Amino acid sequence: MNASNAEVAIIMGSQSDWSTMRNASETLEELGIEHESLIVSAHRTPDRMFEFAKNAKASGFKVIIAGAGGAAHLPGMVAALTPLPVFGVPVESKALSGQDSLLSIVQMPGGVPVGTLAIGKAGAINAALLAAAILALGDEDLAERLDAFRMEQTDKVAKHPVDGA
Ligand code: RP5
């Protein structure tokens, strides 16, 4: 088992990705889903990446969320090494505003899928919600919490816009 008995692994290429990826962590937290956040870089720690991806399933993870920026090879490389579903979050890079991250992650060759989300915060939140939806297929309590999350989100939307909100 992994250190925290977690079902979801959130991995990212650098400490600098955490300000984006923490949104995935907070969303999973809100839904009561055990998860573990790790820095795993395809380029700077390739052995750590290989070790993580090869053992991810056996260590109890069910879904992997992988965030990276720039030449964002992490989600694709991890997807190549594990049978688990991998969601890729393109982190907004300084040089190209995340366009580079997005294109690096989304254009996988047929046969090795990465479910690619939007650039940045929205992508991190939605990766967590997709992970939750997968886990909810086999967990009735979680399915109810996910329904409640969505209902609450709907209830928060005012019918009419107001000035200064
Ligand atoms: C990628 O390079 C990381 O995912 C990060 O988004 C980007 C820049 O990393 P740092 O130079 O900020 O560590 O591997």
UniProtKB/TrEMBL annotation:
Its EC number is 5.4.99.18. Substrate binds at S14, D17, R44. It catalyses: 5-carboxyamino-1-(5-phospho-D-ribosyl)imidazole + H(+) = 5-amino-1-(5-phospho-D-ribosyl)imidazole-4-carboxylate. Pfam families: AIRC. GO terms for molecular function: 5-(carboxyamino)imidazole ribonucleotide mutase activity. InterPro entries: PurE_ClassI, PurE_dom, PurE_prokaryotes. Gene3D superfamilies: 3.40.50.1970. Keywords: Isomerase, Purine biosynthesis. One of its GO terms (biological process) is 'de novo' IMP biosynthetic process. Pathway: Purine metabolism; IMP biosynthesis via de novo pathway; 5-amino-1-(5-phospho-D-ribosyl)imidazole-4-carboxylate from 5-amino-1-(5-phospho-D-ribosyl)imidazole (N5-CAIR route): step 2/2. It comes from the Bacteria. Residues 6-157 form the PurE domain. Catalyzes the conversion of N5-carboxyaminoimidazole ribonucleotide (N5-CAIR) to 4-carboxy-5-aminoimidazole ribonucleotide (CAIR). Belongs to the AIR carboxylase family. Class I subfamily. PANTHER family: PHOSPHORIBOSYLAMINOIMIDAZOLE CARBOXYLASE (PTHR23046:SF2), PHOSPHORIBOSYLAMINOIMIDAZOLE CARBOXYLASE CATALYTIC SUBUNIT (PTHR23046). NCBIfam families: purE (TIGR01162). This is N5-carboxyaminoimidazole ribonucleotide mutase. It comes from Limoniibacter endophyticus.
